[in-house]
Specification:
This protein has 145 residues and is mainly α. It is 57% helix and 3% strand. It has two domains: 3-70, Multidrug-efflux Transporter Regulator, Chain: A, Domain 2 (Orthogonal Bundle), CATH 1.10.1660; 78-129. The protein has helices at residues 3-10, 14-22, 41-55, 60-70, 78-109, 122-129, and strands spanning 30-31, 37-38. It has a two-stranded antiparallel ribbon. The chain starts with a helix and ends in a 16-residue tail after the last helix.
């Protein structure tokens, strides 16, 4: 199958397929006589796996580690379990950060006393006077904050 069909069947843009190839997560397909990429069912299975992992917010290095485990079926799965435990920890940290952010926003919203001029708006006044919010913890995804 060609790249467009693979992308359609995996429900993703063609650029995503090319990106995963460049990142080494998806093996390069054979080329046809006309130099078209010729994907097979294994490419679709791998792409579906990658997309499921991304839907679980896994980073590319995490996915790469899982693919390495897939490619060594006789290896111990303890590193895979550790990887998932670490990912769950990252998710828990993000949930805590978002919970704190929601509480802060709720407190700011509570300063609103109804319809009044913007100059007297408790929300705007609070945002104008308050110190910047503490920085979030660094993401486990490289390049993200």
């Amino acid at each position: 199958m060609r790249i467009g069909e693979l992308a359609r069947r995996a429900d993703c843009p063609v650029e995503t397929v090319r990106y995963y190839e460049k990142q080494g997560l998806l093996t390069a397909p054979r080329r046809s006589g006309a130099n078209y990429r010729d994907y097979v069912a294994a490419h679709l299975e791998r792409l579906a796996f990658i997309r499921r992992c991304r839907a679980l917010d896994m980073s590319l290095p995490e996915i790469r580690a899982l693919i390495d485990a897939i490619e060594r079926p006789g290896a111990d799965c303890a590193p895979v379990e550790r990887l998932l435990e670490e990912h769950i920890g990252h998710v828990a940290e993000r949930i805590a950060d978002l919970t704190a952010l929601k509480a802060e926003l709720d407190a700011i919203r509570a300063r609103c006393v109804g319809h009044q001029p913007a100059a007297d708006c408790g929300i705007v006044q609070t945002l104008s006077r308050s110190a910047p919010r503490r920085k979030r913890r660094a993401s486990h995804v490289r390049g993200a904050r």
